[in-house]
Amino acid sequence: MAHFAKSPVPRFSAEVYQNPYLPEDGREVHAVVTVTATGGGTTGGRPVPAGGAGRPDAGVVIMVDCSGSMAHPPAKLRGAREATAAALDAVRDGVGFAVVAGTHRAVEVYPGGGRLAVADAQTRAQAGEALRALGAGGGTAIGSWLRLTERLLSSTGAGIRHAILLTDGRNEHESPQELRAALDACQGSFTCDARGVGTDWEVKEVTGIASALLGTADIVADPAGLAADFTRMMETAMGKEVADVGLRLWTPLGAETVFVKQVAPTVADLTGRRRESGPRSGDYPTGSWGDESRDYHLCVRVPAAGVGQEMLAARVSLIISGPDGDPAGPSPQPLSQALVRAVWTDDVTASTSLNPQVAHYTGQAELAQAIQQGLDARKSGDTGGATAKLGRAVQLAGSSGNEETAKLLAKVVDVVDAATGTVRLKATVAEADEMTLETRSTKTVRVKK
Fold this sequence. Notes:
Elements: E1 4-6, E2 11-17, E3 21-22, E4 28-38, E5 42-47, E6 58-65, H1 74-89, E7 96-102, E8 106-110, E9 117-118, H2 121-132, H3 142-154, E10 160-167, H4 176-186, E11 191-197, H5 203-212, E12 217-220, H6 226-238, E13 242-250, E14 256-264, E15 268-269, E16 275-278, E17 281-289, E18 292-301, E19 310-320, E20 336-344, H7 348-352, H8 356-379, H9 383-400, H10 403-409, E21 413-417, E22 422-425, H11 431-439
Parallel strand pairs: 3-20, 6-7, 6-10, 10-11, 11-12
Antiparallel strand pairs: 1-5, 2-4, 4-18, 7-8, 7-9, 13-17, 13-19, 14-15, 14-18, 16-17, 19-20, 21-22
Helix pairs in contact: 1-2, 1-6, 3-4, 8-9, 9-10
């Protein structure tokens, strides 16, 4: 496999979709901001010389669950070894990498010595040999895996710092508070994609890890699917060009931010992740970017005003954050910016019209919430609540064109009428189907053209 150089840093653009019109004394302004990065990604051009010169431009760590349960069935650990080897084959020459074996403690499998190896044909082959020695035994303490990964990635000057975490069980050998503390310590240091293999792991743990570290979460029910999934994740990581991009939101005197959410490609509430960056200004982390586009839904509460008045409700900028997610200063050169307006009118039609993007993503956020609440109700034995929430989810998935989520819902409920959300709970549901629906509940689709 060829390992190619990176192309120039991508260019960012930001586009606002909103209905700026408010009724007299109206205060809440909603907008969807589409952020697009273009011109990045890997090229088909010059390969980086093996070993690279100076510090690596990216560092990746793969955390492999090696607890005792990974031996049952043996295909799980075998699949994890093969998947890790496949992911390492997708690592670009010159990138720093390491492999960590996770049990009730974390151990460096390769290269050891508290450092990252530099990817080339020789180090990949050495890592492959080290993987063959992986065995299963011990417990599960994911926080210790994350802390070791943070130390390894912090030891390099790499700009892009990414990790992949694979687990097959619950985090039984440390408290939830210990895992939360580890996640807090790792936030801003690296991004992390998390995967659960099989069906004996806890969805909320795995999705919580990915959410805290601005990565993706998914289920791989069959270990045979791990290699392809790991390869895709690593190829995506290798396409990242800019680390630590922040969405900076400035609001005028008297205005306040109600929420900021990523709404595509997945729903992720960033409101609580705000870091103050100046007077009436706060930064929200978005992680690393390559060639891609994401949508953000923001709501700002502005001072009430009379008919005919107009104001700038918010200014959205994309900026490069400093180390550990700290703002890069009160006024770094923005990568791009966009304006959100508020205009007061007595035209009822104008002030009550819903912008299509805002309406769509409000529905997608409700869809994710309805699935979570419906599955929680089902697990607790609340048949009526589960039927109502999952029925509403079916209705929302159908009306928004979210076909993948609709297919997943159809494995948990019998759909009588999708348009009205009339469903019946299935008497028996495969555990993998329920976990897949829960894990992927936050995946969204964009507005139908």
